[in-house]
# Entry
Amino acid sequence: MIMNKRIIMFVAVMLLMVAVGTVVGDDANATQYLTMAKMAFQDAKEVIVFISEADLAKEKDIINRAALQNKLKVKIYLIANSIDVGKRMREIPSNSILVVYQSEVLRKKSTQLFILKKCKDKQIAVITSSNEYSELGALIGLVKTNGRFELVLNLKQNSWAATRFPTDVIERLGIGRVIQ
# Structure
């Protein structure tokens, strides 16, 4: 019963956020990222965030509120260049959750492939708003497709997570597309 209430709340929050336009351009915000993380991984206590300094200036208060709301500790890593990416990837423990914001550095295909390779090796769940990241291997994406937002689950590149997302959970979470 509690699980059903949480799922209904999650779907309602996601639909409300999309309806009122809290998604700016093609990017999701901290509330959406952290809500996805908590709903998909209910036992999660911590989420790691890759974000640019400019995005952090805009999102810091939202990140703090969303962390409190979802009872998550958020570890923020500022990413200014590819050296930061490599250094920070080494610091992330296996079986973590990584939220990747979209910035100039994090949009580069070579950076995406590097992050996804390292995350696959360490079974780190990547959450993003990039359709390209979702196609390449991010586990969960809130992506804009044909002017609408949908949740995408990539099990093809994340076979380790398949047991966490059986068909009934996929349906209850409102995942619109599954890549298998």
About this structure: The mean pLDDT is 85. The helical segments are 2-19, 30-40, 53-69, 82-91, 104-107, 109-122, 131-136, 167-173. The two ends are 30 Å apart (CA to CA).
